[in-house]
């Protein structure tokens, strides 16, 4: 979660049973960093970090987590107009997974052609993700959301799987509902042969977590239910 999930936040949550945490999303190039500043001005939480300093910050943050929990995977979620900054950051030894953000729907990011805008041009998405998969020094994840108008999420998932993504992080957002769109999880799951599917959205208790897994997700991620730096259920009971 932009502006929120740093090392200190992750360290609060790991004791609840998390085996992976995500730092970011970070804006990894000058264009997305400028967009981030605009979002901050209108009141949205964002990490305000100069792109030139970002690799050092990520190294420091990930090492802080690894110091206490060496067995917990550290993923880094990144927005970038081109693949190059993502590939560069993947060289950091203390991170385990590099995640392409095809999820952000803020207008300042969409206007740059990244974030959720990557889903609108599958040829460009394929080119972008393929370059990261081929050149990254770490396993690759892509995060995107369900029910984006004009986007076939099953087609996107199949494409990412064929490219060779290691993880597909799927936000099963259901517009106007206070629950995940489990039918979309089933559709995406049926399109994936090899990638590990992480299901996200409205997981706030054991029941919702189990429902996500029953719908075809291989694992779950928790966002809003953890905003307070804790969760109210035992992950080990899922």
UniProtKB/TrEMBL annotation:
Domain DUS-like FMN-binding intervals: 66-228
Signal peptide annotation: none
InterPro entries from the UniProt entry: Aldolase_TIM, DUS-like_FMN-bd, tRNA_dU_NifR3-rel
Name assigned to this protein: TIM-barrel protein
């Amino acid at each position: 979660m932009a502006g929120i999930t740093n090392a200190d936040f992750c360290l609060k949550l790991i004791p609840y049973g998390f085996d992976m945490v995500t730092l970011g999303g970070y804006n990894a190039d000058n264009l997305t960093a400028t967009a981030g500043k605009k979002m901050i001005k209108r009141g949205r939480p964002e990490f305000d970090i100069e792109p030139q300093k970002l690799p050092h910050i990520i190294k420091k943050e990930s090492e802080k987590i690894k110091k206490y929990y060496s067995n917990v995977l550290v993923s880094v979620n990144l927005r970038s107009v081109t693949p190059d900054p993502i590939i560069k950051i993947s060289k950091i030894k203390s991170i385990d997974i590099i995640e392409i953000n095809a999820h952000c729907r803020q207008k300042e990011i969409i206007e740059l052609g990244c974030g959720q805008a990557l889903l609108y041009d599958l040829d460009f998405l394929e080119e972008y993700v393929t370059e990261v998969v081929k050149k990254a020094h770490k396993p690759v994840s892509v995060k995107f959301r369900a029910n984006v108008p004009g986007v076939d999420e099953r087609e996107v998932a199949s494409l990412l799987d064929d490219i060779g993504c290691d993880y597909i992080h799927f936000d099963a957002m259901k517009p106007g509902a206070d629950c995940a769109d489990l039918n979309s999880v089933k559709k995406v799951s049926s399109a994936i042969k090899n990638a590990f599917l992480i299901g996200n959205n409205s997981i706030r208790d054991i029941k919702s977590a189990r429902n996500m897994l029953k719908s075809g997700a291989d694992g779950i991620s928790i966002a809003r239910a953890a905003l307070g730096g804790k969760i109210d259920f035992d992950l080990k009971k899922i």
